[in-house]
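2024-03-11 09:14:02 DEBUG pipeline.ingest accepted 1 chain
2024-03-11 09:14:02 DEBUG pipeline.ingest length=518
2024-03-11 09:14:03 DEBUG pipeline.predict start
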Amino acid sequence: MEYDVVVVGGGHNGLTAAAYLALAGRSVLVVERLDHMGGAAVSSRVFAGVDARLSRYSYLVSLLPRKIVRDLGLDFHVRRRRISSYTPYGGSGGLLVNAEDPARTREGFARLTGSEREYGAWEAFYGMTRRVAEAVFPTLTQPLPTRAELERRVGDRAAWGALFERPLGETVEAAFADDTVRGVVLTDALIGTFSHAHDPSLKQNRCFLYHVIGGGTGDWDVPVGGMGAFTDALAAAARAAGAQFRTGTEVTRIETDGVRAEVTFADGGTVQARDVLVNAAPHTLAALLGEEPPAPAPEGAQLKVNMLLRRLPRLRDTAVDPRDAFAGTFHVAEGYRALQSAYEQAAGGRVPDAPPSEIYCHSLTDPSILAPEIAGQGMHTLTLFGLHTPARLFAEDPAGVKAELLRATLAQLDAVLAEPLADCLAHDPEGRPCIEAKSPVDLEREVGLPGGHIFHRDLSWPYADGEAGGDVTDATGRWGVGTGYANLYLCGAGAVRGGGVSGVPGHNAAMAVMEKAR
């Protein structure tokens, strides 16, 4: 059997590429190892006998361009969270950042710091990041700019230096004086990235950049219907355009001479294609090609915890309604000094004493993921994302370390609640608490992320700097999806401008295929 294009991996980026190419008239086959499409962007009924569809792995949307939704005619929507974040401090206080009420946010900063200074610095700092976002985000679905071209688009030398050239910690410490505020800012540099404020590699800056440019605003939105609603819409668009799917089929080898390729399956079957798009990590692609994997090896650094609650827990901070606190990003143990301490302990090979994490409640913004009967009972989902938990910690005792880390993480949350979280957990019909945790080891085993790295590898700058996988003047390289073979493309998070739930590398790989064929 021969196709114009074979897409290896049916995650959201592979489906994006398949939909674009099928709409353009290419014959497309999408091959997926699991028995369903969606990869890490899926919704699942996690707890047996409980009708709640949780976004099991990825859970919020920021980097998805509306262009992709429009181009593919997707029946998919997101909702903005009215609360940006809530951060407990001092035992019974908390900083609430209300996206719809700047006056309330200003009052919160004044209570925290005793002055107007930090709020003014906050407004100036995020005004700067928004201007950068407005310049950079539109380029993600365009041919890869050079560094000089992107700097010209940003047009702000101070902002460029702060975000692209100097460790983020220098900028954060110069802009803010308060430890709590500094920590809230820094967390966006550490999501899924094991790093620290002054890391000379600047991988924390790259992570921060992708967390603040989404949509040109930096907003992190809730997918209506759960994350699976996005991949379901993509799969429907690709299928309607003529793409074919093969699930439960593992690819074991790819051979190419740069003109034609052969894809081999675990059962011994093969298909031929003019072009192959790989929605998997560069390390996985190297193994499929029989080549040496690139260095360094990817290493995830997160704990993902999914929960269903009978009701939201009460807070020690009686001035804030839990429905506000949990509607945005609820920061736990994420002060600036606490983040550094946790990093140092994890880098030293042990579970941090106070594991940092952030939490949010999907169902406060989008109750459609809960069956009406349980939503009517006041039940809610709770998603926790833990930081500074590198895969190396789990090497010798994955289950034991995960249990230890989960206990320590929930203890930090309990410290800012007026009642134990365990008292608020729902139970399934068999009496088991509705809580599950996913470590980097679990993510590698379940969704094929090497080292459990949610971005497939450390994020790249969104410009050409030699990482594009080929000469940026050719079709594959100039879109940031090249591999060194003219008919083989990365279309997943490991491509330049990959990472997050975006569809961007899938779009860009499809554009590269179509551009080459002109």
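2024-03-11 09:14:41 DEBUG pipeline.report Residues 117-136 form the longest helix (20 residues).
2024-03-11 09:14:41 DEBUG pipeline.predict end
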